[in-house]
Amino acid sequence: MSATATSTTHDLIVIGGGPGGYVAAIRAAQAGLSAAVIERETQLGGTCLRVGCIPSKALLESSHKYEEATHELAAHGVRVGGVALDLATLLKRKDDVVSTLAKGIDALMKKHKVTRYLGTGRLAGPGKVSVTAADGGVTVLESPRVILAVGSRPVVLPGIEADGDRVGTSTEALRYPEVPGHLVVIGGGYIGLELGSVWRRLGSRVTVLEYADRILLGIDGDIAAEALTLFRKQGLDIRLGVKVTGARAERAGCVVEIEGSEPIRCDRVLAATGRRPATDDLGLETVGIEPDRRGFIAVDGQFRTSAAGVWAIGDCIPGPMLAHKAEEDGVACADGLTGGWAHVDYDLVPAVVFTHPEIAAVGKTEEQLTAGGVAFKKGVFPFRANGRARTLGDTTGKVKILADAVSDRVLGVHIIGPEAGNLVAEAATAMTFGATAEDIARVCHAHPTLPEALKEAALAVAGKAIHG
After folding, report:
1. 445 a catalytic residue
2. Which of 107, 132, 249, 465 gives 20 to 30 Å between its CA and that of 197?
3. Starting at the edge strand that comes first in sequence, how are the strands of the sheet with 128-132 ordered?
4. Is the four-CA dihedral 452, 458, 460, 462 of positive or negative sign?
5. Angle in degrees, 0-180, between the axes of helices 452-461 and 420-432, rounded to the nearest 10
6. How far apart are CA 37 and CA 18, in angstroms?
7. Which pLDDT tens digit goes with each residue over 317-363?
8. What distance in Å separates the CA atoms of residue 295 and residue 277, rounded to the nearest whole number?
9. Annotated domain spans of the chain
10. Given 3.40.50.1100, 3.20.20.330, 3.50.50.60, 3.40.50.1010, which CATH number is that of 167-273?
11. Which of 76, 343, 447, 467 does the annotation list as catalytic?
């Protein structure tokens, strides 16, 4: 093992090079600080870039094009024959997308003069961070400011014997070497439904097992119910109220054990049952920080932890475990510790499920408003009445706007349909500035476009939709 190197000093050290970490370092560098990022993976970008958001969306796009070619283009007068799946090329494209974006982050590090340390970062007492390289060598860094941005890792429930191959998490599901004959997905959240959709499109028989009585917990119930119907029509075998008690690889396949039912035999198992903060073995005890039982680190409104000189952001603190939330944390935290404004409104963090149709939401659900005793009005507009959706041949779904019954201020926007992930940006912007439903309704939207559905839903809040 190599000896410990002489310490190096920086104005700011960030442990973790994911969306929150590298963004925080860049923002701090823009403010004039000497910033450093510690990341043990060779590629910066974190789980999101390497084995999360980006590769899964690349697979979703490629698999959707394959399904279009095999089932949908004929309706547009495009006759396609001899369509074949080249899985190796599909996976290579996914890897190329990741590699290109990772190189882009490296270029940003150089542009902003952020120092990169390759290794595992760990707090080593007040103002000190150790970096352990792959060869065991240790470098000690010093700084009056340390940001913890270590992200999260998949949760594997008891009884699920993950082997990194036949029984695995989303990481393995991004690189199956062949299309599984039968894939069982444990968990009906966005990860399970997105990756389940990918392999169904490519030819798998996919069974989704969800413990709750609905899919997509946290998404508006009305929207989730419509999604369930649509996904089942697409061929996903979604079973609700199912308690999985075990899953293991067995010879050439797998067996999934279910409480009160016969086991399911399949080719592969994807455990998509949530994520937890990756705060283990971070040296928190060396500065007196104690995470909660789930691993989250408590912070104040400035992202400061209980330890002086230590901040925390992203998935390792409470709030939505989303890459864009981590980025906002990173910017706000860096701004705050350099004398600027530090605030993120977690009530207005958009969420998107990149299935087809896409699902997107920002703000409160009907269930949350009802439980809180908030009187609200609702406006709904279906995509089947939208001209652009008709020309695209993609008319499933709707836009739903919830507004305060008295003030008309928009409290929640929920979309299932074409390009929902893009459409929700307008809603998030409007709500950030306190817009009313009438405000959105009176904005001139180009025709024919999908955002007109948002305008019509806003008009519908007052019962004045033009095309509904």
Report:
1. no
2. 249
3. 4-9, 138-142, 128-132, 120-123
4. negative
5. 50
6. 10
7. 999 999 999 999 999 999 999 999 999 999 999 999 999 999 999 99
8. 5
9. 4-154+277-346, 167-273, 357-461
10. 3.50.50.60
11. 447
CATH topology identical between 167-273 and 357-461: no
Question: pLDDT tens for residues 71-118?
Answer: 999 999 999 999 999 999 999 999 999 999 999 999 999 999 999 999
Please indicate, yes or no, whether the overall pTM of this predicted structure exceeds 0.70: yes
Contact 279, 316 (CB under 8 A): yes
Burial 196-223 (b: 16+ CB within 10 A, else e): bbbbbbbbbbbbbbbbeeebbeebbebb
Give the 3-state secondary structure of 277-313: ECCCCCCHHHCCCCCCCCCCCCCCCCCECCCCCEEEC
CATH number of 357-461: 3.30.390.30
Domain spanning 4-154+277-346 has what CATH number? Answer: 3.50.50.60
CA distances from 155 to 17, 70, 90, 140, 329 (A): 21, 36, 28, 31, 23
The CA distance from 327 to 18, in Å, is 9
**Neighbour-count burial of 405, counting CB atoms closer than 10 A to its CB (0-12 exposed, 13-18 middle, 19+ buried):** middle
Q: How far apart are CA 17 and CA 131, in angstroms?
A: 13
Cβ atoms of 351 and 189 within 8 Å: the answer is: no
Counting every residue, how long is the chain?
A: 468
Residue 357, preceding peptide bond in cis (omega within 30° of 0): yes
